[in-house]
Amino acid sequence: MHMGLINRYHQWLGLPELEPVTLGEGNTPMVHWATWESHRIWLKLEGCNPTGSFKDRGMTVAVSQARCQGAEAVICASTGNTAASAAAYAGRAGLKAFVVIPNNQVALGKMIQASAYGATILAIEGNFDQALQAVRDVAEQESWIALVNSVNPWRLRGQETGAYEILDGLGHAPSALVLPVGNAGNISAYFHGFRRRNEGIPQLFGIQAQGADPLVQEHELDEVKTVASAIRIGRPASAHLAKEAVKESRGQFRSVSDSQILRAQEELAHGGIFVEPASAAAYAGLKVLYQKRLLPQGDVVAILTGNGLKDTQTPAMWASVEPQIVKSQYLTESIGQFMNP
Ligand code: AN7
Fold first, then answer.
1. Is there an atom of ligand 1 within 6 Å of 279 CB?
2. Which atom of ligand 1 lies at the shortest distance from residue 78's CA?
3. pLDDT at position 115 over 70
4. How far is the CA of 339 from the centre of ligand 1 (A)?
5. If you measure from the C-alpha of residue 278 to the centroid of ligand 1, how many angstroms do you get, rounded to a whole number?
6. In CATH, what number is assigned to the domain containing residue 97?
7. Is pLDDT above 70 for 1?
8. Ligand 1: which residue has its CA nearest to atom 8?
9. How far is the C-alpha of 212 from the C-alpha of 221, rounded, in Å?
10. Handedness of CA 175, 181, 184, 189 (dihedral sign)
């Protein structure tokens, strides 16, 4: 039985009375990955959520709230995961979904997902930041359309539940939390979640991709470029909240290169954990922080935000999709050659 996050955490979320729109989100595995000297490394697998990303935590609350307020449709701008999540929860709620994406900038798996759930996909010539501005304008004009990007405060409230689960799983706050940062909503939500519970706050490390790292550069970017399409964002809407979270927790923002991201993705996958490139950025950042001796000792949690199956084209840069052709009657000999090459 899976009750969904709104019922499970109603005591902490403190939401107004509403009928939950849920797909059984949350309660994701936190895997003990390794122990590096005095650091116990935990990976929270947010790709195990119903639509394959952490966005579902916020979407259950935002869509429940939108339906309760009488909205007929939801709208979002997206690099892909918000689109898939909004589409799924709108479908569950019986609402229409409009998702606005930067043309040719979203991984195919996420497009298919959003379309399969029944959303209308609208593509603009421009980047995510322009798409977000456009949907904000629409939602302001049309009261029957609810905006479900993370600028919607209900989204961030729902995403606080990630922090609750870490506290409930470990029994205490970790010493550090490492997560990928794009529009900067999730890092802010975790910070508020830890603050609300008042059981300690981890040092927050926000990892961006080089080429799309406005929080590291400390200024907004018009041009953004990275292999991690989910976090190809130059003007993070929640930048002010994220800066406060990092400052108050004595953490920092860092960026990692595309090659570091791809190597991290491969290392995780060879250990059985297949994540999308944006999530691999968090692991790449974690390794850099360890090597530079910036991690506090104790429990360190990395949030792996999205499932690897969302974007199968990017890992084809390092994983071969060509099978080894063998003759069935010589299978034993062929296997032998792979065991002892
Ligand atoms: C896998 O779907 O912005 O810093 O439109 O898909 O809270 O934005 C996705 C962001 C990290 C960054 N990892 O989170 C979108 C979108 C994955 C993501 C992020 C995203 P925020």
1. yes
2. 5
3. yes
4. 40
5. 8
6. 3.40.50.1100
7. no
8. 183
9. 7
10. negative
- DSSP letters for 108-163: HHHHHHHHHTTPEEEEESS-HHHHHHHHHHHHHH-TTEEE-STTSHHHHHHHTHHH
Instruction: Indicate the top mutation candidate among 49, 74, 79, 98 to test ligand 1's pocket, ranked by most ligand atoms within 8 A of CB.
Output: 79
Mean pLDDT for 233-254 is 98
Final residue before a domain boundary, out of 152, 168, 201: 152
> Ligand 1 within 6 A of 159 CB?
no
Q: What is the pLDDT of residues 297-334, one digit of tens each?
A: 999 999 999 999 999 999 999 998 899 999 999 999 99
pLDDT at position 2 over 80: no
What domain range includes position 143? 55-152
Tell me, yes or no, whether 337 lies in a domain.
no
Which one, of 268, 61, 270, lies nearest residue 153 by Cα? 61
pLDDT at site 58: 98
For the chain, what is the mean pLDDT?
Answer: 97
**Tokens (6 digits) for 37:** 């000297």
Instruction: Indicate which atom in ligand 1 lies nearest the CA of residue 82.
Output: 2
Cβ of 152 below 6 Å from ligand 1: no
